[in-house]
Amino acid sequence: MSVEFGGAASARGSHGRYRIYFQGAECGEEQWSIEPREGGLVASGAQETLAPHPLPNRHEYRATLGPDGRLTGLEIHWSVGPQRLTAIHHAEGGVWRARIELGGHTKEQHGDYPEFCEVDYATHLMSWFMLARRAFGLGGEHYRGNSQRQRGLGALWVVDTRWSLMGQRGFNPYFLN
Description:
Blueprint: E1 3-5, E2 8-11, E3 14-22, E4 25-37, E5 40-49, E6 57-65, E7 71-80, E8 83-92, E9 95-102, E10 105-112, E11 117-120, H1 124-132, E12 150-153, E13 156-160
Antiparallel strand pairs: 1-2, 3-4, 4-5, 5-6, 6-7, 7-8, 8-9, 9-10, 11-13, 12-13
C-alpha cells in the first residue's frame, strides 16, 4: 500500500532515528517508524532529551494518519522529571478531541478541525506530515494573506495553515493553560 501526500513521494513503511543537539552539544535522540495500515499510516516513536537541553523530557507517541496524510489520532505518553502526562487525541468529522491526564487530574477539550487546519506536535516527524500536504509554489496554499489563528489543545497546537508559514507559529510548553 502506498499513501500519497498531496503529490509528495509515497510512503511504504520505514524507520529511522536522529540525534538532537542544543547549542552544539548532543543532548538526545528520536527513534521513529511509519507503517502502512488499512486506509492510511501509523507512525510511532520515542524522543528523549537530556541536559544541556533546556527542557529535558521523554515522550512516546503513536499517530494515525488518513490516506491523505492528515492526522486522525495521536496518543502521547510524556515524562518530565517525576511528572507523567498521557494525552489521547482523535478527530471525529470536523472536530478534534483531546483527553489529557496529569497528576491525577483529567482535562477534556475539543475544537473545530476543518480541512485547512493541521495538528503539529513536538517532533520533526509530525512537522513533516503537516508540511508534506502543502503546495509551496508561488501562490501555493501556504500563503493566504496575513490571517493568523491558533488554538491550544493540550500539548498540541491546531494550526490554521491558511496563513504564511513564514509568520510566527506558537509552541506552548506549559500545555495546561
